[in-house]
From TrEMBL:
Gene3D superfamilies: NAD(P)-binding Rossmann-like Domain (3.40.50.720). InterPro entries: 3-OHbutyrate_DH, NAD(P)-bd_dom_sf, Sc_DH/Rdtase_CS, SDR, SDR_fam. Belongs to the short-chain dehydrogenases/reductases (SDR) family. This is 3-hydroxybutyrate dehydrogenase. One of its GO terms (biological process) is monocarboxylic acid metabolic process. It comes from the Bacteria.
Length: 261
């Protein structure tokens, strides 16, 4: 399971799932490049704390996941500073909910760009170096929505279905080069963004906190438990290790039974 001496890029890693994965990697001895949005001072505090806590080199890139040239530049910067990029975790994502006939075209384009196309540009930029070293790990954070649909989430569901197909395809292309490509598909994960939705939903629906959590947010998850970011991070860490060298092209679902039906 040792990853000491490896280096990684984790997109969308300034909070939530991405930060948990970046933290787990750094704690395992991996140098990490963070990426995401936020206030400059908060981003620097996050980077500095992770570096101090783990003793690893931790960088930050403000690369915009809708801009291919910035994604490529982020990879080149990581390669220059770390010497190589062994692991990429494509986690950046956005959501928008609307009936299809009212869905703003700009929102559709942005969701597809960030949730799907960015993973293509990231893989395209890192694969040559991985091939040269005969080693690499590509982990794409999909969703239970890579397997099932929900109404009013047409762009998100389309992107996540597409991400799974893309991941399977590159897994086949890279299978003889020591490079694996896999998806992790969480259900509802307990993050600050989810927590912030609860008071508004309580007010809008006249529900208690427990009712919102069990009957709205966790309606589709038989366990009635949120997935914790640490659980997703642990799965990502395993997929990046040599223990999972023959796991490729897989969709690793962690959804409390949502997609079992």
């Amino acid at each position: 399971m040792s990853l000491a001496g490896k280096s990684a890029i984790v997109t969308g890693s300034t909070s939530g799932i991405g930060l948990a994965i970046a933290t787990a990697l750094a704690e395992a001895g991996v140098d990490v490049m963070l990426n995401g949005l936020g206030e400059a001072a908060e981003l620097e505090a996050t980077r500095a704390k992770l570096a101090a806590d783990t003793g690893r080199k931790v960088l930050f890139s403000p690369a915009d996941m809708t801009k291919p040239e910035e994604i490529t530049a982020m990879v080149r910067a990581a390669e220059a500073d770390f010497g190589k990029v062994d692991i990429v975790v494509s986690n950046a994502g956005i959501q928008f909910v609307s009936p299809v006939e009212e869905f703003p075209t700009a929102k559709w384009d942005a969701i597809l760009a960030i949730n799907l196309t960015a993973s293509f540009h990231l893989a395209k930029a890192v694969v040559p170096g991985m091939k040269a070293r005969k080693h690499g790990r590509i982990v794409n954070i999909a969703s239970a929505h890579s397997l099932v649909a929900s109404p009013f989430k047409s762009a998100y569901v389309a992107a996540k279905h597409g991400l799974l197909g893309f991941t399977k395809t590159i897994a086949l292309e890279l299978a003889t080069h020591g490079i694996t490509a896999n998806c992790i598909s969480p259900g509802y994960v307990w993050t600050p963004l989810v927590e912030k939705q609860i008071p508004d939903t309580m007010k809008a629906r006249g529900m208690t906190k427990e009712q919102v959590m069990n009957d709205v947010l966790l309606a589709a998850q038989p366990t009635k438990q949120f997935v914790r970011v640490e659980e997703v991070a642990a799965l990502a860490l395993w997929l990046c290790s040599d223990a999972a060298k023959n796991i490729t092209g897989s969709n690793n679902v962690i959804d409390g039974g949502w997609t079992a039906a």
